[in-house]
Specification:
Helices cover 42% and strands 11% of the residues. Helix 5 crosses helix 6. It is globular, with a radius of gyration of 18 Å. It is an alpha/beta fold. It has eight helices and six strands; from the N terminus they run H-H-E-E-H-H-E-H-E-H-E-E-H-H.
């Protein structure tokens, strides 16, 4: 990881925070930040898009759905300040990927190891349901982010929406790599258009799909409706995180 990449990640994060591409999301995130939840009336909400965070030398990219209205949209950090984050970071801590099992604020001292956490959509959406158009509007941010994380080889997708976004991210990243390679080989050449996928791999817990140097790994989202009902258990997410670490080893031994 070059120091220049770390600086560019910081610059990218600042650009993400200033994004206003999606009028519906802008209106909602700012309304929530103004009205606030009763339990947090004394707190100043973030109310802006969320940059990714973690270890710039990460080999695993954790891709979530979107910031929670009163979680990350309040605290300003992915999966921070809500039950989903409590479950996720506790699992990461057990796996040796996080310095502590809790994530309550940007100033709580949490450090991630070998992991970068981001989301398919960077703004809190109404009813926690971003649209495909909003997902695709965020895709260029994710492509740039992935380019600045050159060691990433595994993308852990939390839920079906993140899985679909991960497929698009991989395809865009691979196409970008091909264009760069072709332009280096042939002066003035224009990269070949991205070919359509013959089939779309379906999301499932523990499902794997490899495209070029990236492996997508599916995991049920750590939302309350999944963790409270037992659809996603601690042992299930522990197994997926162990698999994510296992998948990185052959490439970086």
């Amino acid at each position: 990881m070059h120091l220049s990449d770390a600086r560019e990640l910081k610059t990218l994060g600042e650009e993400v925070v200033g994004c206003r591409r999606c009028p519906r999301l802008v209106a909602w995130r700012e309304l929530v930040a103004h009205e606030r939840r009763a339990a947090f009336t004394d707190q100043e909400y973030w109310g802006r898009p969320l940059p990714g965070f973690g270890d710039p030398r990460a080999r695993v990219l954790v891709l979530g759905l979107a910031p929670a209205a009163h979680g990350a949209n309040r605290t300003g950090r992915m999966f921070t300040g809500d039950r989903s984050g409590d479950f996720l970071y506790a699992a990461m801590c057990r796996a040796g990927l996080a310095s502590q099992p809790t994530s309550t604020s940007r100033a709580d001292g949490l450090r991630l190891r070998d992991v970068w956490v981001t989301a398919a959509v960077r703004c809190a959406p109404p009813a926690n349901k971003p649209t495909p158009v909003e997902r695709d509007a965020c895709l260029p941010w994710s492509v740039r982010e992935l380019e600045l994380l050159p060691r990433v080889s595994v993308i852990l997708c939390l839920g079906a929406f993140a899985w679909d976004a991960g497929l698009r991210l991989c395809a865009a990243a691979v196409a970008s790599d091909k264009r760069s390679s072709e332009q280096q080989q042939v002066s003035g050449s224009v990269g070949a258009p991205m070919r359509g996928r013959r089939h779309k791999p379906r999301f499932g817990h523990g499902t794997e799909h490899t495209e070029a140097r990236y492996t997508l790994l599916g995991c049920y989202h750590p939302s309350q409706q999944n963790t409270f009902t037992g659809r996603l258990t601690e042992s299930m997410i522990d197994t997926v995180l162990a698999r994510a670490r296992e998948l990185t080893q052959p490439r970086f031994t």
